[in-house]
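Box 3.1. Reading complex inputs
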Amino acid sequence: MSVVDLRSDTVSRPTPGMRAAMAEAPVGDDVYGEDPTVIALEQRVAALLGHEAGVFVPSGSLGNQLGIRLLVAPGKELICDSLAHVARAELGAAAVFSGITFRTWKASRGRLDIDAIRELITPDAGPYLVSTAALQVENTHNFGGGTVQPAPQVSAVQDLARSNGLGLHLDGARLWNAHIATGTPLAELAGGFDTVSVCLSKGLGAPVGSVLVSSADRISEARVWRKRYGAGMRQVGILAAAGLYALDHHLTRLADDHARARRIAEALGADPADVDTNIVVLNVPDAAAIATHAAAQDVRVSALGPRFLRLVTHLDVDDDGVEQAIRVLRPLIPAR
Ligand SMILES: *Cc1c(COP(=O)(O)O)cnc(C)c1O
């Protein structure tokens, strides 16, 4: 019996076809702007998302960090929800690198809460309070459980940002999943934001890589900061090729991951209506103990809080893997 790894969609390994594409990729020195495969990926992602330009970066965290540093001056604040990846899982990078502070709203399942955001923002706070410079949206929402942000709420946040002169960043690490789950074009999901970061290394199954898209001017500035942070890369078309391959071969199949996540939720007594995409969150009495017992039976899941168990479907989990996971987890999860 092989191991079924549901800890994250980052654990998938590149397929033979992807590895072949990487091996054959034409490359050049990307710091000189001479890697044709990187250029092709940046242009393709920018076009897909309806933005002028893109920059290839090693991680989604760096994509987010470059995006928000372009929108928020040191000493100003970014408003996001308390479970946002930028606030919770980037190890304080915005404070350490960019002097950005956060205030957060408490979100149910990671959803946008317009009234809460409206109450938080202080665009021109003068010399007494921190001035708000930008808002950020995460779609889909990771710690919220793969939640797709409802379109009317996204529009309302965009109106709020515009009418208050605030920047707007989209953490679209899994925007691909929102696109496949809703059928909404990517350019529509990414439109109305100043900067958008997307990951190639989650459900799309590339080994490395994210792209930040924005206006041509902002992306030129992002290239400066990328190099300054030490992330200027050389013959990196070898990695960009994996991203291009993923867009050709692994985008529409995300629907399979979504169906498998719903199957898991159903079988483990969670509400499948809460599963928008490829992430299942289970509220359990002792998440760590369940993760340990499951791992001993070759099923790996993430305990991300005392009661918070996260299961993520991806390229390397097929129907047999799902059934194996259900067999192991069912006796460990209290009936609900
Ligand atoms: C994974 C993820 C990122 C980026 O993570 P890296 O590990 O830095 O690539 C950013 N935002 C969200 C919502 C994520 O799930």
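In summary: The chain has a mean pLDDT of 97.
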